[in-house]
Queue: 2 jobs
Job 1
Amino acid sequence: MTKRRTIGVLSRATGVKVTTIRYYETIGLMPPPERTTSGQRVYDADAQARLAFIRHARALGFPVETIRELIALQIDPGRDCDSVDAVARKRLADVRERLEQLKALERELERMISACAGGRVGSCAVMSALADHGQCLHDDHGHAGGGTIATAT
Amino acid sequence: MTKRRTIGVLSRATGVKVTTIRYYETIGLMPPPERTTSGQRVYDADAQARLAFIRHARALGFPVETIRELIALQIDPGRDCDSVDAVARKRLADVRERLEQLKALERELERMISACAGGRVGSCAVMSALADHGQCLHDDHGHAGGGTIATAT
DNA sequence: GCTTGCCTCTACAGCGACTGTAGAGTTTAT
DNA sequence: ATAAACTCTACAGTCGCTGTAGAGGCAAGC
């Protein structure tokens, strides 16, 4: 007996919000499930496994497009593992790059905060550190407008 | 003689793209500058300082709303420095939290990749690690649907 | 004066990955 | 029978920009 899951049950089982599950369906990441006569979605164990896979990959920061590729590979399990490995390695490289950026941010924020003596805003070290024309971080203020600002948080 | 800067000059001076400067104007982060008779924007040194401040704060990951608050504080420099300090500390806490998350991702990705023996996709360790129902990272799969998936990269 | 080539203008759509809302219908529990 | 909880669709909004289209402006060289 294959368990019949409504979208809410599936949501609680996987930790993916109901609206997000429907969104994944609209973008083709989840296949359209069967419906009851009244039109409610009914999911099986395969759907749950797939959603769990997606959730885990998203938690690791893989973009949706990459997950789409991984699923395509999954469906064709005879192929070489290299592409999967490459995707994971690429992701690891991205994560490490972001880690370095964040560590730099951490250092600068620490420096700013420790300099704050708690006076008035007019003489606040944090403020003057910010007003300082971006010397500390990545000061490309001379030549090119390569203004890729660090993607937030 | 106050230098008259067109938007392109300002852009090159600060490393903020022309379109982004105009965007900051529409959202009220930059004040509307003077215009030539033909309608082109003309900026002064104050505008450049303000834009440099914004750029630096954005590079540190402060959200635009927070920068708006900081600018409001800046305009009123007699007030206590506490709120500025608090904003910076909050940001530091956010950065550190994100650092921890990313380190966890790094560890899990390393583990996945080192387990990959390079066979076929059907038996790929990376794939089965992903299919594994989210045990490793933050397995809130029991009770609540608190599905805040780690914000990507 | 005229052309060339870059610069600037406005207005609006699109990105990624969802989230929120409105308004209506369905299922389950009491 | 009724209330509570769930589900449906469709679409707008989020954040911080980026890209596009089509039109007009400006300095330098001829």
Job 2
Amino acid sequence: MAAMGRTAGKKTRVQRSEEVRDALFQAAAEVVGEYGYIDASITRITQRANLAQGTFYNYFASRQEIFDELLPVLGAKMLAHIRQQASGAKTFLEKEEQSFRAFFSFLKRMPYFLRILNEAEIFAPKAHRQHFHNITGGYMRFLRNARKNGEIANLGDEALEPLVYMLIATRGYLALRYTDENGVVNLPEEAVRMYLQLLAKGLLSREPPVSAGSGPLG
Amino acid sequence: MAAMGRTAGKKTRVQRSEEVRDALFQAAAEVVGEYGYIDASITRITQRANLAQGTFYNYFASRQEIFDELLPVLGAKMLAHIRQQASGAKTFLEKEEQSFRAFFSFLKRMPYFLRILNEAEIFAPKAHRQHFHNITGGYMRFLRNARKNGEIANLGDEALEPLVYMLIATRGYLALRYTDENGVVNLPEEAVRMYLQLLAKGLLSREPPVSAGSGPLG
DNA sequence: CCAAACAATGAATGATGATTCATGTTTCAG
DNA sequence: CTGAAACATGAATCATCATTCATTGTTTGG
């Protein structure tokens, strides 16, 4: 093992630092997902990360600080996942369906996300507002686009906004209702159909579409 | 003021007891509505009720106990209000609209209810599950009835369930979004219209209705 | 190889707030 | 009227963590 400096087995200090920080972040996400923010104590988080209590404060100024970081980081992953999954769809309804399904497939991957998201409204309100703003913004663009293309009824923005709220509320709530005690989502196909039917009959215009744009949240 | 025994000015012990208990309950509701369960300390609650800390424990075994009582009691009031308001409606859509509006008019009366309801999912989960069960149960009956009368599309129960979740989610979420920082709801008429349009186009059948039943939650 | 600099550790600190309790007061049955 | 039971009170207790800190170990640039 000749002169390896720092290229091989050993890790540089900053690499290790990043790893430790990530470990703390991941541990926090899991612990919050399992026990909720209230019972996500520093003790639990550091134990799960195999670190001492004090180490936490080498990476985060306070417990609240890591709480505030959870949703932004994981929310961005969620958006990326949804965009990716829905990228192939052409029509409004296809995009909507694929985004809808992607939300639930994301929850399968990250079972702890739903609780983090829901409780953030109370325990990380600023982060929650920001996340919500991102989501609704993307959705509004998507709907305006579909409207422009004549794919959906020609509603004013004042009507689009509550609609967006309804659709987002629906996702979150269905996820909650169809998640079992172990945190596993299992959305029945009937629920997807019902959702799409409501949209199709309630929103779709009969005019021929003009062109395709991006998906919701896209 | 001759021989009044206990009929006039003075109050009997049990009367006083009830009053004190009610004062604590009311104070707790207000404090939770204003500050949330987390910051609803015994100190705050008893101060608002003009009582000493210790008095609290003459009426409730623990802080959690009063938390667990909040939603059942207020939830029952909400249901009563909604039923009362929607009692005059005849058709499915009328009932739905009046119940929908009644939910929001209830929030105007009891601004603290929304926060109690929402946070209960975290801080009084059992009570929240029970409340939710009441609500969905009533709603399901309402929809089955409308289906039986041919007022809405002939959907199976497996489709009705997610639909109920969607409608309930919608109410809660819209309330949240259209409540200002002072806790005052202000639902734009556009939102009501959008909600009803989605139902009307998405659900209503074109068959003639057969007869009328009870409203949602009724 | 060496001395800063940096990081890990877990015991000690400190604040908070629910709950208990000893004491004084009020009610009421007999 | 009277003593026991019920109630009110708020100071004291107690448990629970987040956060700090003194110590020890590790990395790094020279």
